[in-house]
TrEMBL record:
<dbReference type="InterPro" id="IPR004821">
    <property type="entry name" value="Cyt_trans-like"/>
</dbReference>
<keyword id="KW-0547">Nucleotide-binding</keyword>
<dbReference type="GO" id="GO:0005829">
    <property type="term" value="C:cytosol"/>
</dbReference>
<feature type="binding site">
    <location>
        <position position="61"/>
    </location>
    <ligand>
        <name>(R)-pantoate</name>
    </ligand>
</feature>
<feature type="binding site">
    <location>
        <position position="155"/>
    </location>
    <ligand>
        <name>(R)-pantoate</name>
    </ligand>
</feature>
<dbReference type="GO" id="GO:0015940">
    <property type="term" value="P:pantothenate biosynthetic process"/>
</dbReference>
<feature type="binding site">
    <location>
        <begin position="30"/>
        <end position="37"/>
    </location>
    <ligand>
        <name>ATP</name>
    </ligand>
</feature>
<keyword id="KW-0436">Ligase</keyword>
<feature type="binding site">
    <location>
        <begin position="149"/>
        <end position="152"/>
    </location>
    <ligand>
        <name>ATP</name>
    </ligand>
</feature>
<protein>
    <recommendedName>
        <fullName>Pantothenate synthetase</fullName>
        <ecNumber>6.3.2.1</ecNumber>
    </recommendedName>
</protein>
<dbReference type="GO" id="GO:0005524">
    <property type="term" value="F:ATP binding"/>
</dbReference>
<feature type="active site" description="Proton donor">
    <location>
        <position position="37"/>
    </location>
</feature>
<comment type="pathway">
    <text>Cofactor biosynthesis; (R)-pantothenate biosynthesis; (R)-pantothenate from (R)-pantoate and beta-alanine: step 1/1.</text>
</comment>
<comment type="function">
    <text>Catalyzes the condensation of pantoate with beta-alanine in an ATP-dependent reaction via a pantoyl-adenylate intermediate.</text>
</comment>
<dbReference type="GO" id="GO:0004592">
    <property type="term" value="F:pantoate-beta-alanine ligase activity"/>
</dbReference>
<keyword id="KW-0566">Pantothenate biosynthesis</keyword>
<feature type="binding site">
    <location>
        <begin position="186"/>
        <end position="189"/>
    </location>
    <ligand>
        <name>ATP</name>
    </ligand>
</feature>
Amino acid sequence: MKVFHAQSQLKQHLQPFLQAKQTTGFVPTMGAIHKGHLSLLQQAMNENDVIVMSIFVNPTQFNNAEDLEKYPRTLQKDLELIEALSNKIIVYAPTVDDIYEGNTVAQNFDYDGLDNEMEGANRPGHFNGVGTIVKKLFEIVQPTKAYFGEKDFQQLQIIRKMVEKNNMKIDVVGCPIFREANGLAMSSRNERLSVQAKDKAAFIYKTLQAAKDLFIEKDVKDAQAFVKTAFESETDFTLEYFIIADEASLKTAIVKEKNKNYRAFIVVHIEGVRLIDNITLN
Ligand code: PAF
């Protein structure tokens, strides 16, 4: 398996494939690889000639220094997991300097307001950091298709917008959320949870499913009231937000409207770890 830490060497390695018009599937990650990431890789392998995965904890998308410091970094284990899936995967694991070239700042993006909602509102600057790193990675790797998990659904929509606005010829593929057997959405952050908290966190998806039923039978406010009450009695959790939004605009819904697709988004904290999840509603 080839592992590159320098973009110049990665570009040199990819050049012949690009010239031969081979398709490249790209899976950008921040590491702490889990089955969700491996499912993205598998889909990329099914659909492309060449597969590149990046592993980089991007400092410009963290608005909280402690969160950045605590983010799991498990490169050796990650490489073993990737190699066990396929030794043909090309890994790019750059240093901050290699990718930011001495200028570790986020560019400003116009996402037509998609970044004013939810994660954008609660984590100022986050999506400029995401856009900055993903654009840099796209320019280096020049993928045909790029794969992102729907767990970060707002990120997925924002990357689609960034690609459209920058006229990048990249197919952005959204992949279904991969869950533990108890329903907990797989996330690198789960690494920081105790076994007990992982068990308890099954409550998040159960609550989302119940909220979905209420949304279908009744309306937005009923689902919202249910989730608020449910988390009030679960003192291990702190509910940061539960929002029902239109999938296209990500604007918060007040009442159900015909011909719109809705999704419920949730952020909760347990043991000081911020967990994010979402579910389609119709
Ligand atoms: O979803 C992630 O892991 C990150 O936000 C991404 C897309 C790799 C950019 O750093």
